[in-house]
Amino acid sequence: MNKTLTIYQDFDTLQRAAMALYKSNYFTDTKSEAQAIVKVMAGSELGLPPFASMSGIHIIQNKPVLGSNVIAT
After folding, report:
1. 3-class SS at 66?
2. Residues contacting 70, CB < 8 A, separation 6+
3. Side-chain half-sphere of 27: how many Cα atoms within 13 Å?
4. What is the CB neighbour count within 10 angstroms for residue 57?
């Protein structure tokens, strides 16, 4: 099974993590629950855990973009 399919099978877990991080209000560039889920899903596809996804993927002009800390890693 490829990694992408595994990510979608774990959607509920990703969604719960994204919601907890979003509700913390520590990630001000994330304007909605859906954006938090997209950031966590995008990070998961890159092998990042939820917190690293929320802090290292930014929404710029309505698109998720990797931050320099993620690129450097």
Report:
1. strand
2. 43, 46, 48, 52, 56, 57
3. 26
4. 25
- Check whether 58 has a pLDDT greater than 60: yes
Q: Phi and psi (nearest 5°) for 64?
A: -70, 130
Look at 9 and 55; give whichever has higher pLDDT: 55
List the alpha helices (DSSP H) in 1-73: 3-9, 11-23, 33-45, 50-56, 68-72
DSSP at 25: T
Q: Record the tokens describing residue 57, joined without a space.
A: 């993927």
Q: What are phi and psi of 60, to 5 degrees?
A: -125, 125
pTM over 0.70: yes
* Polymer length in residues for the chain: 73
